[in-house]
Design goal:
This protein is α+β, with helices and mostly antiparallel strands and 173 residues long. It contains 5 helices and 9 strands, in the order βββαββααααββββ. The strands form 4 sheets. A 3-stranded antiparallel beta sheet has the order 1-2-3, with helices on one face. A two-stranded antiparallel ribbon has the order 4-5. A hairpin with a 7-residue loop joins β4 and β5. The N and C termini lie far apart (63 Å).
Length: 173
């Protein structure tokens, strides 16, 4: 009552006509006559129940997204510890890397960062005699709308020159 400024609050109230509980965003201001005597309080309320419910739902979804992200990170970290490498390529035939597990360094000698910064491209690591067939199998998987496919074994060349045979499974999205 003594404030010269509007006061804004949120209040849960029981709405008698609809017989439901609603959240109101209420602005209150004391009204004075020309001599400063308080005449009463002017209050304006807006039903913000739906907004509150949507914000609560958004918070719930954000928590779920964080939980799923944490779970995904945990699962992806398994590739960092093993002999398998997980790749996610851009949607091109250069096989530009969008994601690769850190275990890639054991396979081809190049770091995850070298792939992600595009200093190295995965096609650079495929043996020249095998690259044509790897790309052909990928194009075939895309053409036939395959969700999952298996490459024939092919060779990759380690940074130190060693040649390794690998078995590669892929999904096309």
């Amino acid at each position: 009552m003594k404030s010269n400024y509007p006061i804004v609050t949120e209040e849960w109230v029981f709405h008698a006509s609809s017989k439901r509980r609603v959240l109101l965003d209420i602005t209150k201001k004391a009204m004075h006559d020309h001599k400063g005597k308080i005449l009463g309080v002017l209050a304006i309320g807006h039903d913000v129940t739906k907004r509150k419910e949507e914000l609560d739902e958004l918070e719930k979804l954000n928590k779920l997204a964080k939980s799923l992200t944490d779970s995904q990170a945990s699962l992806l970290s398994l590739f960092d510890k093993g002999d398998s490498v997980l790749y996610k390529w851009e949607n091109d035939f250069n096989l530009d890397v969008a994601y690769v597990s850190t275990s890639v360094i054991r396979l081809v000698g190049y770091s995850k960062e070298e792939f992600l910064s595009k200093k190295v491209n995965y096609t650079d690591c495929i043996h020249p005699d095998d690259i044509k067939n790897v790309i052909k199998e990928l194009k075939n998987a895309i053409k036939n709308d395959l969700d999952y496919f298996k490459h024939k074994p092919y060779r990759v060349i380690h940074k130190n020159g060693d040649i390794k045979w690998i078995l590669d499974y892929g999904t096309v999205k």
